[in-house]
């Protein structure tokens, strides 16, 4: 028996369908064009000498020998680039009172982290440039390095930025309801101090850039492995004083970004300057060792939090202090305080309570900068909240599912405003919780856990609910003065052959942005998806927009494509109606054919409309001007963010003798609104979960007391690998946003948001019989054994 | 243009491909010992790319036939130094006569590395965290070394001297490793604790025992990732010889590790924790040996 027909069964119905990505075959076949594949005539190669000290004064730099080396074209120090590049400061106006020192491509007189680029060499090959680096002598005078959070906050300790009274970058406070009163009258209070290690993105493709300044035209072209070509067009224009229209940024194929490739890096800014100084193309590709000490890091939080409950387990209040250390500068142009800001605002987000207080303190230290990385702030807020909820459940005597069922905001109670100030349109915590219970066979897992415990096998079960921020409006960056767009633009053309070309401002980094835009355009126009070509990532070609970050590609980019396609379809139908002597409303397009809207009888192929419009306009009624190219912009309105929600669960086994943790299975129920391509959505969830499991179990940038990164290679910095990863079971609840026609929200960060929280709860569940607890991520064998007091 | 223009590279060096052992030794001597032999290159190439090493000459030894092949020779299995890690898994002679190497091989790094890395290279580097150097100790192997003054054989027990320091003199080359043939009255066992499959282990151990019925007549147990060198644990061995493998004996062997091992401090794992893990692992691997592993 066949399943009943659904809307997916009509031709060209691509929204909601798992169709393959048009670019997948090309990339798999090795035909991708990444920055490192790019070779321009007369191109030169840059390499950077890096500081071995975490904090030091530059006394002198001797570059004579390096300059004399054959094949070396330029050796540049801070002062050389400072002459042509305006400094930048990583602050935003809506973060009141935040400070950060001005930055330049290369430092003038002081280094502030180990690995900071100090001198640039440009040569005929990377190898020659590296030979030259070995001939440069830099005389440093060591300064006291500020390494850990405590010493950074010490009154009277070393201060990183001269002229500052202390190492504080930013403080924020939230206080809603009657927190003190709630704690004073609580039947139960749970409290814990958590720590979250630093980690970093480790993209398959490292940062890469080719800057090509043409002095004759006064024009700069930058081929850049970035998520945000428009943002960089603006920045290169303003910091190097080149009119925006003469700056072109091209982001071709990109091998992963995860938020890491949307910040200003000193080397990238330097490479643009080097190209200007030389009037030749200059390439720089970070090697893996450089990536570890110069890509942004993320997390690095210490959170003290408590939760008050009544006797029945109703959550009454939360009180949170988040200390986070961000490196020596705040990153430009998005700052390094967004993560902390989101940590304190996402706390307790799934729950109904109204009394909330939080303090955030963002601190400078002598390490590489931290900034936005996949699921900014979410894993911290989720782990803290969900661990406290589990601790509370144990104290009250409730099952983890029961306490959540009791405290979630009801699915029918939306819209709601959280005590942290977020406005939620519609979430589905209750439905998701119910679905997860069935999906993971929770009762079965608990029975198995009890059985195995009798035999000395310690399994743990953990769950963690989350709220994810997607589809950001100008409230995110625009209001703070950043020239970062929250709108997107698309230009659609019907080609003379009756196909569609879509230029759109959202970008592709491997997640399938181009695939879903293709699906939306093909679906809305009524064409086979093979007849739609999507082009992204070139500021000279595609309209200005926000591009792809913060889970905005599907929700905002997708809606832009949808609305633009509807305009194009309207224009096509108008011309078709003239040709066929019908009303436009009586016609439709299915599978590339003009049809009668009612009967679906074929009238004429769309290619014939295109042929007539482009080549035989003389046959159209006088005064007709066919508009077969449309442009359209869409900026989100209504809710400032489209929040999504979901819940994850996992089962794992702790070897209580070795402290090793074996992941057995992971589950997620997720609600991203309208699902455009289930396969891509599921892979976003899987990839996100694996990144979260990496954070939970493996990834940490470890520093020595003097501020040296001690595990900055892939031999020592452990990323999650397939053998250790569990199967991931996925289910969906769909609550489309009413703010758009498409109804899609973001999904890219949902997996990462709660995976580590889930593991934290499961490990604590596993070791509960030993009266042991863990409150620190990553959860390493060392930490487990210490918690178990095994040695 | 070629890849050299974009890749991060080693400092320039000369390259010589030797056809015979004598050619290789001669080239090394003529370079004034500012040379490195290269076979699989799985440790050397990263060191060159990071410019941690910058020899004037690389001598490619992978085309030297005398260093290839696996064959029985008297009471030994002669394993050519150029034998790749992956061949430890695929060669029937290894599985039959040196099954401990066969058992350890899947734990050696990842497939791509096993496809190129060589047995001789691993033993010559003597990484204290590597599986194979430690297994040569458990197997009572002999290492055949060619040098200017001829060829000699050194017992594994006398080969590993200190961190990355061995009985090899500058310009000498491991040509083969001799493993006493596995016998019917012997049993072996191997395991390691690595956070990810293929990583350097936090601790690992392999053992070869000769049994008379259920009584252990002789046993050699070797650990890796516990010291500056691969390490035999003679105290633990002594507690086991002459006994059968019951819980009490295993506990005694575990206790003896405290005298056998003094793990160095590392930034992640304290000496006490490493010793604890070594005890747990020894107990588990001995348990498996008792079951006839």
From TrEMBL, chain A:
One of its GO terms (molecular function) is iron ion binding. It holds the Pfam family MoCoBD_2. Residues 29-144 form the Aldehyde oxidase/xanthine dehydrogenase a/b hammerhead domain. InterPro entries: Ald_Oxase/Xan_DH_a/b, Ald_Oxase/Xan_DH_a/b_sf, Ald_Oxase/xanthine_DH-like, AldOxase/xan_DH_MoCoBD1, AldOxase/xan_DH_MoCoBD2, AldOxase/xan_DH_Mopterin-bd_sf. The keyword Isomerase does not apply. Keywords: Molybdenum, Oxidoreductase. This is Carbon monoxide dehydrogenase. It comes from Bradyrhizobium betae.
